[in-house]
């Protein structure tokens, strides 16, 4: 057997990056790559569910839907038709931190994509109607049913957040929101929402692929240049927390599920910090693939967990200590307590048993592959640059993440484990099969 | 802001990457493509597996990487992870597909590990028992998922006694398996003759093929004939209602006949499907999502198997609007089958089809998937030249003719999974309903 050697990388972003800022505050990032005739246009708006006040959960995401329903010069459903009808693909996502919009196009249609994005940044409000809102409210309620309610364990994330973050914290509620709040969403609230947050000075426009910085800068000026700056955009509520939770909490759910399952979760560090880099390596060692400790000890060794449903991963949130989620599902005939004891023991091993060189190097090789897979597409690159520009002020710092992961030492992992994995700061969510009470 | 839509420009030509190919003396065909975007390589190996007995074949696909005479499963996984990669096997009714990726400088090591598994998999008793339990657990979890249950019911309804009708084994069939049938099946079917290996990434294609020949040249033997009879024609009949008490949504599934990729009418049918329900800007999505809000999403696509192709339309709709959703679905099928598409909507679908071909080929993984999938049907990437020309040339009349023939609602086989107590009367108002026995 060969012993794995640690991969090395001096940069995670070997492509050019050029930036500018328009007079209205819009930041523009361009990364040229001529290897394929495609281009991705990506917009990060610095608004997510963390900005939602009580009673308006789910509004940032429902608003994202409304952005596809027409704007000043684009009729309902036309946005989608113009992109797809010119060979492009598109989507948008909302999470607690931010909202992103993106389209990958054959590169000759770059200008069209920029025009569409500018039209909905500068001219959405006149096109918003009660009918559109009512329609998309139903679509989002169906999204909630399809993703969270109609599938076993589907609501775990919705349950974990309020256990992890205190009442009033910007991450306390989920992005999909509650049915009650969605039902009460009023049109004026959405108009105000757009006017408040969908401003050039609250966004980053990133273009990656078969184009040049000069071309993009000129088109950005042409289409976005006249959109007015919005002064005094209110910040989201403060997400800082004194440290890991000081009291363990648990929730036990009885539901129509095929087997007992456990989610353990801890607040760690914000995404982008050295502590979170160590947590990223830690979670790979703990739960990624057959070489991981959870797999080796619970699935292959003790045979108490189902091999397909073992995992440990961080959720990359930047504005407060981000969650680490560890999960396992009981094999047939194994009870919840046995599984929970086994899981706790493996988690504790990260504190008590030093990480070996082989474990560390394998984790780094896996992270290296996943990094390169992420930036193998123009979409992946554009979203990455938009993230670093929005969250850290400089897209070029994206290049540092991979080298920083590769610089994490075994001691760093143990230190992170000692800090974040203590049982007294743990959130435990369990599911057992049965009739819901 | 500039108010008017910029002039729409014509689409650029399709540029095909160069495929290098060699069939080795053992019958394995190796295809290599250079795409140096990132320092990775994608690996896809397709081994014909038609008519392989379902339960052992499924377990074999899960246990293939669990041991050789020199390594146990953890060794194999750790060795693959050490070059940043992983390989896994999956099964469909036509073939065993091994896929994965690695850091580009780990290609040799990855192929060595692949070769050792292909020529020396031992299916250790302990490991097979672990994989057996795992597969049983996995199937049991799937049996609680509405999308899986709807698919099981639909396949049975579509294919009757054809081998494609059942694609997931019963837990009990898996429980009964020992390693012996897996070893026998491996000896009989995991053979290079007729298999295709695709390598795409930051590689020198000729060198990669030489490497593959050196490492995989020792894999030998010919396989048993795996050809399948053509799929039967769809038999229409009552709507099949599968009960899932407490469901808050209903899974609506319709199957329709379709054509193979090389049929002269395939491009018109592909476009007709796009206009109906094959992409977000389709009529069906516009109707039941954007106009009525009955669903988060609906989608129809043409599924290709070696023994035949079929069109499947799927949507998860809110329980209380299950009947109205079926009504609109049948209406949209009837509309596309009875009236020619508009000029503009056809143009839009055409450009979407051509553009997504280009986007799909722009990444290593997309290119590997496309080249491998085509190779599985005896095609090469240059088929795209012919296919894109056919997409460009298809007329409204041809699209209307294909739709009339293949998208007619009278030819649909329909399955709905949901809370029968709440939806049966809604559905019975529209068509004859038969409850599933299960």
TrEMBL record, chain A:
Top-rank lineage group of the source organism: Bacteria
GO molecular function: metal ion binding
Gene3D superfamilies associated with the record: Metalloenzyme, LuxS/M16 peptidase-like
Domain Peptidase M16 N-terminal: residue ranges: 28-146
Residues covered by the Peptidase M16 C-terminal domain: 187-367
Pfam families, sorted: Peptidase_M16 (PF00675), Peptidase_M16_C (PF05193)
InterPro entries (UniProt xref): Metalloenz_LuxS/M16 (IPR011249), MPP/UQCRC_Complex (IPR050361), Pept_M16_N (IPR011765), Peptidase_M16_C (IPR007863)
Protein family (similarity comment): Belongs to the peptidase M16 family.
The protein's name: Predicted Zn-dependent peptidase
Species of provenance: Actinoplanes philippinensis
Organism ancestry: Bacteria, Bacillati, Actinomycetota, Actinomycetes, Micromonosporales
Automatic annotation (TrEMBL), chain B:
Molecular-function GO terms, alphabetical: metal ion binding
Organism: Actinoplanes philippinensis
Entry superkingdom: Bacteria
Organism lineage string: Bacteria, Bacillati, Actinomycetota, Actinomycetes, Micromonosporales
Protein name, entry field: Predicted Zn-dependent peptidase
Ranges for domain Peptidase M16 N-terminal: 58-169
PANTHER family found in the cross-reference section: METALLOPROTEASE (PTHR11851), PROCESSING PROTEASE (PTHR11851:SF224)
Pfam family, one: Peptidase_M16
InterPro entries in the record: Metalloenz_LuxS/M16, MPP/UQCRC_Complex, Pept_M16_N, Peptidase_M16_C
Residue span(s) of domain Peptidase M16 C-terminal: 177-351
UniProt-listed Gene3D superfamilies: Metalloenzyme, LuxS/M16 peptidase-like
């Amino acid at each position: 057997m060969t012993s794995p050697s640690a991969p090395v990388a001096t940069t995670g972003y070997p492509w050019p990056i050029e930036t500018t800022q328009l007079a209205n505050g819009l930041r523009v990032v361009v990364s040229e790559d001529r290897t394929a005739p495609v281009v991705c246009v990506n917009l990060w708006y610095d608004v997510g569910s963390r900005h939602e006040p009580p009673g308006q959960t789910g509004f940032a995401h429902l608003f994202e839907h409304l952005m596809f329903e027409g704007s000043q010069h684009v009729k309902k459903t036309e946005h989608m038709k113009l992109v797809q009808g010119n060979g492009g693909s598109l989507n948008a996502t909302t999470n607690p931190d931010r909202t992103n919009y993106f389209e990958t196009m054959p590169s000759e249609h770059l200008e069209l994509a920029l025009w569409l994005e500018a039209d909905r940044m500068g001219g959405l409000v006149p096109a918003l109607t009660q009918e559109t809102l009512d329609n998309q409210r139903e679509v989002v309620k169906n999204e909630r049913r399809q993703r969270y309610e109609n599938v076993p364990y589907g609501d775990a994330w919705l349950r974990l957040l309020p256990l992890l973050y205190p009442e009033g914290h910007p991450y306390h509620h989920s992005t999909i929101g509650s049915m009650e709040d969605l039902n009460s969403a009023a049109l004026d609230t959405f108009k105000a929402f757009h006017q408040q947050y969908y401003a050039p000075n609250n966004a980053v426009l990133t273009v990656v692929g078969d184009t040049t910085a000069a071309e993009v800068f000129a088109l950005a000026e042409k289409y976005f240049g006249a959109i007015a700056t919005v002064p005094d955009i209110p910040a989201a509520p403060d997400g800082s927390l004194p440290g890991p939770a000081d009291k363990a909490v648990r929730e036990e759910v009885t539901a129509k599920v095929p087997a007992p399952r456990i989610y353990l979760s801890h607040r760690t560090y914000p995404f982008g910090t050295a502590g979170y880099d160590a947590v990223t390596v830690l979670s790979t060692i703990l739960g990624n693939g057959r070489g991981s400790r959870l797999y080796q000890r619970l699935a292959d060794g003790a045979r108490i967990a189902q091999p397909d449903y073992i995992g440990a991963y961080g959720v990359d949130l930047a504005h407060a200590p981000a969650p680490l989620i560890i999960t396992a599902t009981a094999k047939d005939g194994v009870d919840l307590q046995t599984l929970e004891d086994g899981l706790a023991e493996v988690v504790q091993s990260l504190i008590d048993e030093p990480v070996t060189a082989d474990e560390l190097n394998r984790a780094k090789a896996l992270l290296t592959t996943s990094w390169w897979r992420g930036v193998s597409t123009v979409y992946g690159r554009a979203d990455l640059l938009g993230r670093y520009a929005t969250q850290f002020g400089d897209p070029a710092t994206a290049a540092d993440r991979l080298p920083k992961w590769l610089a994490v030492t075994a001691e760093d992992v143990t230190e992170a484990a000692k800090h974040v994995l203590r049982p007294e700061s743990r959130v435990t969510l369990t599911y057992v099969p049965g009739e819901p009470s | 802001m500039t108010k008017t839509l910029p002039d729409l420009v014509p689409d650029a030509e399709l540029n095909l990457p160069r495929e290098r190919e060699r069939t080795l003396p053992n019958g394995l065909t190796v295809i290599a493509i250079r795409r140096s975007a990132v320092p990775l390589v994608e690996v896809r190996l397709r081994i014909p597996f038609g008519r392989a007995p379902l339960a052992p074949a499924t377990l074999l696909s899960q246990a293939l990487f669990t041991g050789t005479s020199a390594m146990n499963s953890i060794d194999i996984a750790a060795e693959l992870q050490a070059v940043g990669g992983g390989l896994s096997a999956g099964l469909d009714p036509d073939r065993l597909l091994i896929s994965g990726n690695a850091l580009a400088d780990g290609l040799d090591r990855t192929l060595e590990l692949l070769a050792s598994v292909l020529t020396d998999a031992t299916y250790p008793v302990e490991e097979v028992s672990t994989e057996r339990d795992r597969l049983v657990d996995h199937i049991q979890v799937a049996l609680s998922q509405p999308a899986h249950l709807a698919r099981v019911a639909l396949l049975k309804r579509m294919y009757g006694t054809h081998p494609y009708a059942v694609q997931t084994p019963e837990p009990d069939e898996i429980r009964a398996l020992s390693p012996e049938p897996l070893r026998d099946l491996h000896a009989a079917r995991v053979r290079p003759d007729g298999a295709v290996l695709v390598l795409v990434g930051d590689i020198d294609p000729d060198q990669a093929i030489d490497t593959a020949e050196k490492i995989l040249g020792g894999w030998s033997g010919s396989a048993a004939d795996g050809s399948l009879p053509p799929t039967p024609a769809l038999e229409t009949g009552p709507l099949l209602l599968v009960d899932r008490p407490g469901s808050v949504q209903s899974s609506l599934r319709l199957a329709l006949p379709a054509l193979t990729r090389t049929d002269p009418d395939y491009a018109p049918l592909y476009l007709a499907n796009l206009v109906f329900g094959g992409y977000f800007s389709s009529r069906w999505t516009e109707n039941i999502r954007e106009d009525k809000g009955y669903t988060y999403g609906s989608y129809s696509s043409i599924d290709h198997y070696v023994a035949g192709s079929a069109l499947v339309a799927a949507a998860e709709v809110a329980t209380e609007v299950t009947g109205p959703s079926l009504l609109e679905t049948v209406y949209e099928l009837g509309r596309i089958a009875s009236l020619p598409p508009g000029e503009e909507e056809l143009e839009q679908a055409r450009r979407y089809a051509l553009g997504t071909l280009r986007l799909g080929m722009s990444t290593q993984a997309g290119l590997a998937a496309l080249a491998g999938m085509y190779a599985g049907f005896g095609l090469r990437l240059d088929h795209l030249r012919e296919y894109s020309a056919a997409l460009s040339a298809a007329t409204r009349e041809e699209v209307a003719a294909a739709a009339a023939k293949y998208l007619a609602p009278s030819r649909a086989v329909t399955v709905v999974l949901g809370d029968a107590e709440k939806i049966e009367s809604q559905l019975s108002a529209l068509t004859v309903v038969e409850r599933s026995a299960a």
